[in-house]
Amino acid sequence: MRTFHQEGAAFVARLEAPERAVLLEVVDDVVELLDAPTGPQRPVAADEAGAREHAGDPLDEVRMQGHALPAPVDPAVLRLLPHGSEDAEVAAEFRRLTEGDLRSTKSDQLLRLRACIDAAWPDLVVVPSEAPRIAAALTDVRLVTSERLSVRTDADADALYRLVLEDADGPDGPEDEDTTEQAHRLLATVYVMLSLLQESLVELMIAGLEAGGDDASGTASGTAAEGTDDDPDPTGPGAPH
Question: What is the pTM of this model?
Answer without folding.
Answer: 0.75
